[in-house]
Specification:
Elements (H helix, E strand, L loop, with lengths): L1 H9 L5 H13 L6 H13 L3 H9 L5 H13 L3 H12 L6 H17 L3 H15 L2 H11 L3 H15 L2 H10 L3 H9 L4 H5 L10 H18 L2 H17 L3 H14 L5 H7 L4 H8 L5
Helix pairs in contact: 1-3, 2-3, 3-4, 3-5, 4-6, 5-6, 5-7, 6-7, 7-8, 8-9, 10-11, 11-12, 14-15, 14-16, 15-17
């Protein structure tokens, strides 16, 4: 009965006299105010078209995320969608909701966006979910809803990620959209071999030279900071994956370049030779033709 009772009590809250009674009741009640009275008061504020005040009142209860979630739910159920949406969006980024509470709020906001036909809100919510989960179902749905606006929307979202310095998710989106040129430029700025290996398949075999140059650059940077057999073994381990992709020529070119650059590392040729059968090791290490 909570929802219909609140709807009934707040139906005339736009009337100054009715609102004054609710306001006085809330003001005179000792803290913490019972949930029903809190919902009645914020509902009355929403009815009077002051959603910003709703947020300010609920901020006093930030230590109780469950109560905030319930208030958002009640606002939606009592036909105050704008107040519910604004409040939910505000507190999602402010409070440590549990996974279940967060999902409930996101569901409420999504339903409001769909019911009102607000595609901008739908896209914003899907983008939030995608960033949190990396679930491409949200990404594809966002793209579908955007329709012909997608190129502009994609550009805006990528710009947002770059401003945040979120290179990881920027790379994910660029790869998903097949933007190889921009992805290559991003990867060239990073000194993370594991990050690069996530995307190397996109450049093989058409852009084999790019992959080769990145391995040389990344392994060179690593060897400048790390020494000994353990460092050499690190290089061997990261080149072994390319051999499994039948990229032996690329691996040989990388090996020869690294050995030339780090001629003072006796363990380097020894470790890298382990990648190949004994019959080929001498030719590889001495830059002879196989």
């Amino acid at each position: 009965m909570t929802t219909p009772v609140l709807i009934f009590l707040n139906r005339e809250a736009s009337n100054d006299d009715k609102f004054r009674r609710i306001n006085e009741l809330f003001d005179r009640t000792s803290s913490p105010v019972p949930p029903f009275l809190l919902h009645l008061f914020v509902g009355a504020l929403a009815k009077r078209g002051t959603p910003g005040t709703v947020i300010r009142v609920l901020e006093e209860y930030s230590a109780k995320p469950a109560l905030i979630r319930e208030a958002i739910d009640i606002l939606a159920k009592t036909r105050q969608p704008e107040a519910a949406y604004g409040t939910g969006e505000y507190f999602l980024d402010k409070l440590p909701f549990t996974f279940g509470q967060r999902r409930d709020i996101e569901r409420i906001l999504s339903e409001i966006a769909q019911d009102t036909g607000d595609t901008d809100r739908q896209i914003k919510l899907l983008w939030r979910r995608f960033l949190q989960s990396s679930n491409f179902d949200y990404f594809r749905e966002m793209k579908s809803i955007s329709g012909t606006r997608w190129p502009a929307e994609l550009k805006r979202r990528l710009s947002e990620l770059r401003k945040q310095g979120n290179d990881g998710m920027t790379a994910v989106v660029l790869a998903a959209e097949g933007e190889k040129e921009e992805l290559a430029q991003l990867l060239e700025k990073q000194d993370d071999i594991k990050q690069f290996q996530l995307y190397e398949n996109l450049f093989l075999p058409e852009d084999r030279e790019f992959v080769q140059n990145r391995y040389i650059g990344l392994m060179t940077s690593y060897l400048r900071e790390h020494f000994g057999r353990q460092a050499s073994a690190f290089v061997r381990e990261h080149l072994s994956g390319l051999l499994q992709k039948d990229e032996s020529e690329l691996v040989i070119n990388v090996i020869r370049e690294l050995i030339a650059r780090f001629a003072d590392r006796p363990s380097l040729p020894e470790e890298l030779a382990e990648l190949f059968p004994k019959s080929k090791r001498k030719a590889i290490l001495h830059a002879e033709k196989l």
